[in-house]
Automatic annotation (TrEMBL):
The keyword Amino-acid biosynthesis does not apply. It comes from Lates japonicus (Japanese lates). One of its GO terms (cellular component) is cytoplasm. Keywords: Hydrolase, Leucine-rich repeat, Protease, Repeat, Thiol protease, Ubl conjugation pathway. Residues 150-290 form the OTU domain. Pfam families: LRR_1 (PF00560), LRR_8 (PF13855), OTU (PF02338). It catalyses: Thiol-dependent hydrolysis of ester, thioester, amide, peptide and isopeptide bonds formed by the C-terminal Gly of ubiquitin (a 76-residue protein attached to proteins as an intracellular targeting signal). Residues 1-121 are annotated as: Disordered. GO terms for molecular function: cysteine-type deubiquitinase activity. It comes from the Eukaryota. InterPro entries: Leu-rich_rpt, Leu-rich_rpt_typical-subtyp, LRR_dom_sf, LRR_domain-containing, OTU_dom, OTU_OTUD6, Papain-like_cys_pep_sf. One of its GO terms (biological process) is proteolysis. This is ubiquitinyl hydrolase 1.
Amino acid sequence: MEEGIVETPEERLAKQHRKEKKDLQAKIQSMKNAVPKNDKKRRKQLTEEIAKLEADLSQKHEEELRQLESTNDTKAEEVINGVETMKMEGGEQEEVKQPRVTKAQRRRDKKAAQEKERESRIAEAEVQNLQGVRHQEGLKLAQKLTQQQLQIKEISSDGHCMYRAIEDQLAQRSKPGLTMSVKELRSRTAEHMRSHADDFLPFLTNPNTGDMYSTDEFEKYCNEVEHTAAWGGQLELQALTQVLHLPIEVIQADSPAIKIGEEYNSEPITLVYMRHAYGLGEHYNSRVLKPLIPRLTNLSVLLLNNNSITALPAELLSLQHLAELNLGNNALKEVPTVLGHLESLRKLYLFSNQITVVPPDVIVGLQNLVVLNLNHNQIQRLPPEIKSLSKLQHLSVMDNKLEEVPAELGHLTKLSEINLTSNKLSWLPQQLYQCKDLTKVHVARNKLTSLPEGIRALTKLQVVDVAGNKLCMFPVEFHLLSLKELYCEGNRFVHCEPMPSEQDAEVLSLKELVARFVLQEDRNKFSLVHRMLPYYPCLTALLASGSCCALCLGPFLTTWLECVHFISLRKDMKMKSSLTIPVRALLCSYKCFNTDGHPYYGVATR
């Protein structure tokens, strides 16, 4: 069989190099076509860029050839070493012929290597210089734009950059009749130049003869403007100001801004001229306003209510002086995590959203919060971390789906108003009474069957709203509060309907007898029991649930007899209302209950 021809590595590499050179020539030709022939400045820049591309490719090819030669030398050495070993084993020695290199060839190779190294250093220096100049240009432009609260918007460098930048500016204005595509802008520019040839011909000269363009040459120039990716310059900008009836401002790094079409009083189109952006010169970028939020560093109040907001941007982090934020009546489904970083926030309104979760990490970050409004959401629980809101004064979670509230609410010692109306609460934690500054408690329209004992501790309480619950009476000593307003309609209060009852013989357990003795002794600060009780924390915790008889004032542990007395709000609590409410009372024994003259009634169960 006839064997196929196999390419050597040298042949494959040479084939690859020929293809890369061909591709580069095609790229160079397209670059030349994009630059007007009469623009000497751009032609010079283009020549420099082409030389750099050719040098880079040449350097790449030389490096690949060196790597291939190095690989071949290594393989040859391995083969020679193997052959020598075989010859030594066989006892035969043969001379290995080495190719001779003449002195002239060595001199030529050395000179070529030095020349290539020199070209490589020049190309590298040019790249570094270009990068440095480009960086400085970018810094200067950014500084100028910042003064106008602007920033660069990048436009692709495909020969249409000037027209694309103007297209972008027109789109930003969002005015009917002003938006134009690149194709339309080019067409209108060429049309205007043709119809005003006398204004443009004096500035167009043949690069070879220096003569002013002929009619044919001018028409060719206009055709290139209209149908090719020819770069636009000052002549095209002049035409565009007339077409759009708008001034055009060109911001440059090292020169004052140029304003074309000053006869128009409208807001100018602003282009950013980049001399060193892509190594070809004459690139135009657009501009946009800097994001609004990061510029509002001193903003203290932000009202975003009555929108359709579903999330908040991370830029809000820059508002480190924000004290009040209203996000009410939006479409948020959870408390945005970005809020946890606004440490200066004092008032936060999140009412009428779709919030189901209050993330603990957000709550922890709002330690300066004074007002928190979560009304009209779908929140099922408040996290225990709410205790970190040590400065909170107003908490409102009305119309949600709360079934319980955390005992950690007791840590909010500065809380003055709490609104838990219209939830699904069946009980309240007794720790709520640790909030000594409470003046208003709203828990209407829940499922409460009782209020925790100890409410007398809230000495500043003025308003209580428990309407629409399942209360049968108010807690012990409720009538001793200095209330101004009480709303309690729609409950299941006990009624005063006296009836005979049977009294069982009193037999107190040993535990109850000892507890009553210890509680009585603990009242004497000089007694041994009072001094030793702190050393028995379990016993102290057990006795903490003890009560006091409403008649004899004697202490007891287990509720022996639950009674009720009826309080007139107007007569007994000095309120305007004429209602009479049932207030719970506890007696220590039937002995006290059977004494004459007291207002207490035993509570009968049916």
